[in-house]
Amino acid sequence: MNSPSAIINKILTFSAVDGPGNRLVVFFQGCNLACLNCHNPYTMGRCNDCGDCIPHCPQQALSMDDTGTVRWDADLCSQCDTCLSVCTFSASPKTLRYSVSELLDVVQDNTPFISGITLSGGEATTQLPFILAFLTALRTNPATAALSCLVDSNGLLGKTAWQQLLPLVDGVMLDIKAWHTDQHKAITGSHNHRVKASLDQLIRSKKLAELRFLLIPSVTDFDPPPDDLLLMLRGLSPETPIRINGFQHHGVVGAAAFWPPAQSDDISRFQQVLHSAGLLNVKIPVHTEKMSLPFR
Amino acid sequence: MTLIQDRLLSIATDPLLSFKQKSRQFALSADEQLPYLSLSDGLSTALESRVVCDMFEGHAPFKPRYVLPDYALFLKQGSCYLELPPADTLDEALTYLGILYHHVPSVTDLPVFLGHIDRLLLPYIDDVSDKQLYQKLKLFWIQLDRTLPDAFVHANIGPEDNRIARAILAIEAELKQTVPNLTFMYDPAITSDDLLRAVTDTLCQCNKPHIANNPLHEAQFTDTGFGIVSCYNALSLGGGANTLVRLNLRKVAEQSDSLEDFFAHQLPRYSDLMFELIEARTDFLHNRSGFFNSFLVSEGLIHEDRFSPMWGVFGLAQAVNHLGSLANKQGSYGNSEWHNALAPRISQALSDIVTETFVTFGYKNRALLHSQAGISTDSEETPGTRIPYGEEPDIISHVKIAASHHAYYPSGISDVLQLDQTVVDNPESVFQLCKGALQIGMREFTVNIAHQDLVRVTGFMIKRSDIEKLQAEGSRSNTAALGVEAVEKTGILNRRPRVVSDELTVSDYQ
Prior knowledge:
By secondary structure, chain A is α/β, with parallel strands linked by helices. Chain A is 26% helix and 21% strand.
C-alpha cells in the first residue's frame, strides 16, 4: 500500500465558526508560517521523536517504542498539555496518523450532523498529497459526496498546487495576517507575495469562501488601511464574505502575549473601513460580556 | 408556639412572598399535617432515606400531577359547568381557553399543559389578518405569563407549518418570556426544513422552543394522542399523570456489592417499593379524593383511564460510575466506552421492569418510564440519564450517548445541549445539529445557548434578571426561587458550552 497518510492534531465534529452550518473540522499538524500571535502554536511543528517530553508527562501517557517513535496513550492522557509546553519544536506528541479511509470513516459517522467539512490546521495544504487523495475519495463516495468542502489556508500554496486542489473544494477561507510584506514578515516570519497571488487566484476562480483579517491593535497594518489594501477591497465583489477576527491572548505564548487584545472599538473602526469600501457581508466577533452572575 | 405555628407565622410574615404564594405555602403546610398514606416499613425507610422519592406531591393526593384536557373538544362543545357556548371566533377561543386554564389542576396548582395551540386555533383564523393574529396572540402570550406565573406551564406547536406556529415563534423571539414553556413537534414527514430553520432561528434568540420527535412519541400514544407538558413529560391527551415517583439510581447502586447484585437484587427490590408507592398514591387519588367527579370528566375533557403513573429515575450517571468503580473500571459515564455501554443496559433493565408490571390505575394498566430532569435540591445526582454538568464530551458524542437511552423512556427524557454564543452568528449550525439529533433517534432535547437572559434550569426556564430581583424583592414568578436554588445546589451553570473560539468573541477589558 502506497496510499498517503496524514498527521492530524485534532478533529472537531461540531464547529459553527469554520464555514456555513455545522462543520467537521480536521486540524492538520504542521504549518509553514511561524506567527508570533498563533493561538495554537503546538500545531506548527511535527514531532521529531526526540522524546524530551516523555519524562515530563505526569500520567505516563507518553513512551518511546522499539522503533524509536514517541507513542501517546489517549486513555492515560489527562490533557494537561505539559508536553506541549516543554516541546522546543512547537510540535505535539498527541497527534494521530490517519489513512484516507480512516478519515473518511470519521466523516461518515457524523454525516447526519454536518453541513460539510473544513480542512484546517496548522496549515492543511502542507499535507497536499493526502488532501488530494482524501477529497477525491470523499467526492466519489455516495454517502459523503454532497458535503461541502472548505479549506482554511494561510495562502502560501503555489499556483500549480492550487490548480490541483481547487476543483475538489467548494471554497477557501484565506487569512490575511498583515498587508505590507515587511509587517507580514515581522509577524509570521515570511513575506506575503504568495498570499496575495493566492488571493488573486481564488477570486478569479471564484473559490474565495471567506477573507479573514485578524486584527491586532498597533501590530497589524489594517487600521488605518494602506492605499493598496483599500484598492484591493474596493475591487472585491460586494457580497464577498469577510470576517474580522479580534486578537485575544488565549493560547498565545512569547512576545505576542504582551500585544494588546482587540477591543470592540478597534473592530468597529475596521468594520467601517470595509463598509465604506462597499463590502456588505462583514462578520465581526460576537460580543460577550464577562458574565458575572448575581450569586455568591 | 409549636413548630408548625412558627412555620405558619414565618410564611404569613415573609416579606418576599406575594399573597398568593403565601396561600399556597399555607396549603402545603396543612397537607403535611396529615399522616402519610399507609406504607410498608421497607417503603417508609426507602422514602426517608430518599432512595425512593414522592416528589413532594403531598400526603393526601387530591389532584393528579399533570392533566392534559382535550381543549379542542372544549372549544367545539363549550362547557355547561363554565356556562360557555362553543367558540366561534378567535377572540372567543382565546378567552374561553384562558378561562378553562384556571380550572385545570396540577401539582403546582397551575395548568402544565395549554394545548396544541396552533392546531386548536386554526379553525378560527380564516378571516384574521397576519397582523391581527400576531397582535392577538401576543396579548394572549403576555396574559399567560402574567396570570400563570410558573415556568412549568407548557404549550405545544407543530409539526405542521401554519400561520399560528410561525406567529408564536416570532412572538417568543420578541417577548422572551419564561411562560409558557414551549415545545415544537418535529416530524420529518411533515415539517419542512424551512419551518425547522424558523425554529432554530428562534432558539438562537431565546433558547426556546424545546424540540420533540413527533413520530417517536406518536407511536407510544396511538389511541389517545399526546402532549408534552411541564418539564418535558409526554402523556396521553385527555389524561395525564396521576403521580410521579422517582428512584435514586445512585443510592441503589451504592447499596449493591457488584454489578450482578445491582441488576439481580437491588434494582428489583427497589422497583417493588416504587410500585408500592404508586399503588398507595393512586389509590387515594382515584378511590378516595373524588377528583374524578370533576366536570372535566363529566364533560369528556379528561378520562380517568388515560392517567398513568410516571416511574421516574435520576442519578444514572453516578450509578454507572459507582458500578464502574466496583468493577475496577477506569473512566466515567460520558467519557469511557465501558461506562457508556453499561448505562443503556440499566435503562433497558428498567424498561423491562416497568413495561412488564401491572398497575391498578394506569393507561392499559402500566406505568410509564421517565428520565426525571431533577429537582432544585439534587446536589449529588445528575438529572435522569444525563451526563454530569461539566463532564460532557464533544456535542456530537454527547448526542449519540444520550440517544442510546431514548427508546426506553416513553414519558419523556430530556437533555440540554449547551452551546456557546458563537453559534448565534450561524443558526444553520444549530439547524444541522437538531436535524442530526432527530435523525439518530433523540426523542426530544433542548438547546441552551450560553449568555442569553433566558436560562434552562432542569427543563423549565428562568431569567437571569429575575434571579437578581428575587434576592432583593421576591418574584412574581413561582419558579424563580426553584431556579435560584438549582443554580446554587445543582451546578447548572457549569454545563460545558461547546464550540469555543476565542478570536471570534471580544470582551472589553475594563
